[in-house]
Amino acid sequence: MQKVRVAIVGAGRGGFSVYRMLKKMEGVEIIGLADINMMAPGILDAQKDGVFVTENFCELVKFNNLDVIIETTGVPEVQEKLRQIRGNSTALMEAQAANLMMAILKEKEELLEFKRIQGELSAILNSMQEAIEVADINGVIKYVNPAFSRITGIPEKERIGQNIFEASPDGALATVLKTGKVVFGQRTKVGGSNADVVSNSAPIVVDGKMEGAVCVFQHFTDIMNLMEELKKSTTIIENLTDKLGQVTTSKYSFDDIIGDSPELRKCITLAEKSAQSNSTVLILGESGTGKELLAHAIHAASMRRENPFIKVNCAAIPDTLLESEFFGYAKGAFTGAVKSKIGKFELAHGGTIFLDEIGDMNLLLQAKLLRVLQEMEFERVGGNQTIKVDVRVIAATNRNLRELIRQGRFREDLYYRLNVVEITMPPLRARKEDLPALVSHLITSLNRKLGKNVKGISKDAEEVLFSYDWPGNVRELENVIERVMVTADEEILTKKNFIQHVNQFRMSSERDVDLMPIEQMEEMLIRKAISKFGNTVEGKRRAAQALNISLATLYNKLKKIKVANYKS
Ligand SMILES: Nc1ncnc2c1ncn2[C@@H]1O[C@H](COP(=O)(O)OP(=O)(O)OP(=O)(O)O)[C@@H](O)[C@H]1O
């Protein structure tokens, strides 16, 4: 089709609108625009589009085969001149006619826009899962979407045109039309069907006047199903949150174990080898020698490193709770078990479980643990489903397990299960050559923690540390260095700084005290510490700190000497 060739005279507001409208039309070719103001909006826009523009409209008229000149200035002289100079076959559309044409085109455009929106809306309404029903102010049903027919079984053709006051007089739509108020979450049966639904309905207000109402509803069973799904998801989320709170991965690696003494090297070499296998490891050694540190390092060097490292302190958990702590419990297993709980063995699946203070586990649980070690399966407390796990076990104790076996307090078969690889961490007094490296490592990390700038220790301070026996091992060394660094302002720590902290122990051993069995001495010190700090959890924590033993060890010893109820 040949295009209509058009020239526009006047590029102000009117001319610009004409230009914008016509340039979108396929059948129109705009030859150019003229305006005495070269900054007129139509001129600027046409320039951007690469269309010819001129200050002199006579230039435009010179173009051959011009079909129409649209004059938008409304200036009589311009109109007159154009009438004279246009070619015979060129029509002249003056301002008034141009305005009319614009009004028609605008209306057409609005109609197109309306059709587009209508198309989009009907696509949305048709694809909705919820049913929609619309009625006018008289109750005549004007629209239902496909979901309406799906849920109610009533075809669209049958429903549209009915009156809602007859079709569903008790429904939400009728209520809104009667009251003019929004209805929320009303459960009803859709009139003419058996569908049990939950509806929300609201008035349709146009220019402040209520014109009708719309109702959106869902099948009740759909909602119930959704709620069921939600409940399941909530349970899963709760379980995962529970798990996340407990799961940790190993915090330390072999690089964090400081010292190069042959005694320590022997342990590390054995531990490194065991990390490559899945064998159960039993770590023995006095309190504070780094048994837990070694367990972390073994996990971190093993194939299981990406999976959980779960620590259970067998001495810190009351016997009655230990089993459920280990294996979890099923819902309703005991009063208060309102939901099931996952145990440490399940949490450790794929990873490592570290059973600290294993020597303090009761005999019943020892039997259960033996079964887990043998078969890697167990049942939750109060549950009957067998749970299979893949867990690597590392156990540790500062107690003499052989002695406990002799006393009938530790199962021999469990001992042999556990000590597939047995590593005994040496006490610090047996590897004093590691002291300088440990001290320097501790100073560096405490400088960071305390914001200090300690550079090292003097020779005489080193002598003090070397001459001391370190019954609390590395933990005690850590505590001493921290206490000194908190109080000292010097960059180099001297004997003077240390003596008051380390000397406490030397003095007590050097003092002329009556000799007594060590156990009795220990009991005396524990009683003294508890009476000083109190028999509360916090008091025990501080007592353990003062005695340079772990809290778990203190609990152990308290159990042994039965001062748990000790009142000072
Ligand atoms: N060789 C070492 N290098 C660096 N730090 C160490 C070393 N050995 C122990 N430690 C540190 O000493 C502290 C006590 O170590 P850990 O808790 O591993 O001892 P433990 O033998 O498990 O003690 P307990 O039997 O009382 O539980 C920890 O802060 C640990 O990081």
The fraction of residues assigned to DSSP E strands is: 15-25%
User: Which cofactors or ions or other ligands sit in this model?
Assistant: adenosine-5'-triphosphate
| Number of separate helices | 24
CATH-assigned fold name of the largest domain? Rossmann fold
Task: Please give the share of residues in helix.
Answer: 40-55%
Termini gap: 110 Å
Protein name: Transcriptional regulator
InterPro entries: AAA+_ATPase, AAA_lid_NorR, Homeodomain-like_sf, HTH_Fis, NAD(P)-bd_dom_sf, P-loop_NTPase, PAS, PAS-like_dom_sf
GO molecular function, one term: sequence-specific DNA binding
Keywords: ATP-binding, DNA-binding, Nucleotide-binding, Transcription, Transcription regulation
Commentary on this structure:
The chain has 5 domains: 4-105, Rossmann fold (3-Layer(aba) Sandwich), CATH 3.40.50; 128-222, PAS domain (Beta-Lactamase); 254-421, P-loop containing nucleotide triphosphate hydrolases (Rossmann fold); 428-510, Helicase, Ruva Protein, domain 3 (Orthogonal Bundle), CATH 1.10.8; 518-561. Helix 2 (41-49) links the parallel strand 2 (28-34) and strand 3. It contains 24 helices and 19 strands. The chain is 49% helix and 17% strand. The N and C termini lie far apart (110 Å). The protein is elongated. The protein is an alpha/beta fold and 568 residues long. 34% of the residues are buried. The protein has a 5-stranded parallel sheet, sandwiched between helices. A 5-stranded antiparallel sheet has the order 7-6-10-9-8. Helix 1 packs parallel to helix 2, helix 22 (518-533) packs across helix 23 (537-547) and helix 23 crosses helix 24.
